[in-house]
Design a protein that fits this description.
heterodimer; A: Enterococcus faecalis V583 fold; v583 fold; 14 helices; B: 62 residues; alpha+beta; two-stranded parallel sheet; 2 strands
């Protein structure tokens, strides 16, 4: 159908022409006008408190205490259950968040600007490993780190980013892909390249050596630091491709621990959801499948732009880490995702695939026709609130989301 | 009886057989176990065989 082919070409062009730059770190309330007291943005499609999974509830309780809307976690949980807290998806406010994806008014957010289309997208700062809010952690150590990110790290890094005049992100991703990152479960190379670029600016703008050292160490000790920047980048790249009538290109994939949701360019803001699947992967010592929570997070935005599971061939070591088979099989994931995408990204290439570009532009028609669904590299959270990450794996997007979207776009185009 | 006198399928089997297997992969192993060359084509019916969805996809241009 020519209308669809033209619309898809338009959407693809907008994705490929994106010029994402990290330009600042700013408290969420200054970036998102609608974000107010007693309002929490979360990962995934819309969800109410009664349907939230354990880690999501744990993170919500922690965020409420962090913002000072309750004095302790039990009171916060009661407040959340009372209906006095508003819940909305990050995606409705130009934002994304990993795993539980908590965004509240005082949290500092990365600001990524897509210079080609003059739009912006936001994501909170990666908290590091161990017990963290994105995995449902909510104890004093978690809240203390969030306060440090808000009061010290965010302002320090933000000042350096502004002084640098922003940081080009496409080139960092291109280099990371050639250094073994796939940008979802491995961000070691991109985090290191980012640190190399920003460190001189942090040294120039920081006035206290101790603070500077602490901030540099925080980035340097976190292999996944760049993930949240890549997520804001993904959101900034895909938003301009949304809302093109007739386009069957996916512009959002995300999950909230209960539902998996997608949005499709030609269908605008409409969600298509299905129960989220359990990741298949490897577990840290002492944990197993029985501890795992179903998949969650807005981080699948990186797969939506051809990274993560779609770029597995760039990161053979990840295939082993996430239990996806031998490193030599990593290329099969990327080739398979090539069957459900309309193009390759010539700016992001994979040496191990003879410099083929990452598979880009998921077409819901190709997904439903072939039965091949997007694969997402993911962390695995404990199903109980407050414990944190217990493993890493691969999860498949539910086919039902794409089937619903096919029916909806057929209806929209008068096809029956 | 010469080769030309035999039914066509018997002529086919009188020579070394090369097989193209389409769809179900289970047949491939049996043939290979018999030392028969096989090329497997990974094929599935559109939309997993759902006729309504396949019809919609056809109209939408797959």
């Amino acid at each position: 159908m020519k209308l669809i082919e033209d619309a898809n070409q338009h959407a693809l062009t907008r994705i490929l022409e994106g010029e994402p730059r990290l330009i600042d770190i700013v408290p969420a309330r200054q970036l998102i006008p609608g974000l107010r007291e007693r309002m929490i943005l979360h990962a995934g499609p819309p969800i109410s408190w009664d349907r939230m999974c354990g880690p999501m509830r744990g993170a919500v309780a922690g965020a409420i205490v962090f913002e000072g809307w309750a004095q302790d976690l039990p009171t916060a949980t009661k407040l959340a259950a009372s209906g006095e807290i508003e819940f909305h998806p990050n995606h409705h406010f130009g934002a994304v968040g990993p795993m539980t994806g908590m965004t509240t008014m005082s949290m500092p957010l990365f600001v990524v600007e897509n210079a080609r289309f003059s739009n912006r997208a936001y994501c909170a700062i990666n908290e590091g490993l161990g017990k963290v809010m994105r995995f449902g952690g909510n104890d004093a150590s978690v809240l203390k780190r969030l306060a440090w990110l808000r009061d010290v790290f965010g302002p320090t890094l933000g000042e350096a980013i502004r002084a640098a005049g922003g940081i080009d992100l496409k080139s960092i991703v291109a280099r990371g892909l050639s250094m073994g990152d796939e940008l979802h479960q491995r961000n070691l190379a991109c985090s290191s390249v980012f640190l190399r670029e920003i460190a001189p600016w942090m040294a120039r703008t920081s006035t206290e050596n101790a603070v500077l050292a602490e901030c540099l160490a925080f980035i340097g000790q976190n292999d996944q630091f760049f993930l949240n920047i890549a997520m804001a980048m993904g959101k900034a790249i895909t938003d301009p491709a949304n809302g093109i009538r007739g386009s069957t290109i996916v512009t959002t994939m995300c999950r909230n621990g209960t539902d998996f949701g997608i949005r499709v360019s030609g269908l605008g803001e409409q969600w298509f959801t299905a129960p989220v699947e359990m990741p298949e992967g490897l577990y840290f010592a002492g944990y197993s499948e029985k501890d795992a929570n179903p998949d969650m997070g807005d981080s699948a935005i990186v797969e939506t732009i051809g990274l993560g599971g779609f770029a597995m061939a760039a990161a053979p070591a990840v295939a082993g880490f996430v239990g996806a088979g031998a490193p030599s099989e990593a290329g099969n994931f990327t080739r398979s995702m090539g069957e459900i995408t309309v193009a390759q990204n010539p700016e992001w290439t994979i040496a191990a695939m003879d410099f083929a570009g990452v598979p880009t532009g998921i077409d819901i028609r190709l997904v439903v026709d072939s039965g091949v669904v997007p694969v997402i590299n993911t962390g695995i959270a404990h199903r109980e609130p407050g414990i944190g990450q217990v493993g890493a794996g691969v999860v498949k997007a539910p086919l039902a989301c794409f089937q619903q979207a096919i029916v909806a776009i057929a209806k929209d185009l008068g096809v029956s | 009886m010469t080769d030309q006198d035999r039914p066509q399928y018997q002529q086919l089997l009188a020579r070394k057989v090369e097989v193209v297997n389409v769809g179900l992969e289970g047949f491939v192993k049996d043939l290979r176990d018999c030392d028969i060359g096989v090329v497997h084509v990974d094929w599935k019916p559109s939309a997993g065989g759902d006729p309504q969805m396949a019809a919609l996809l056809a109209k939408l241009g797959v």
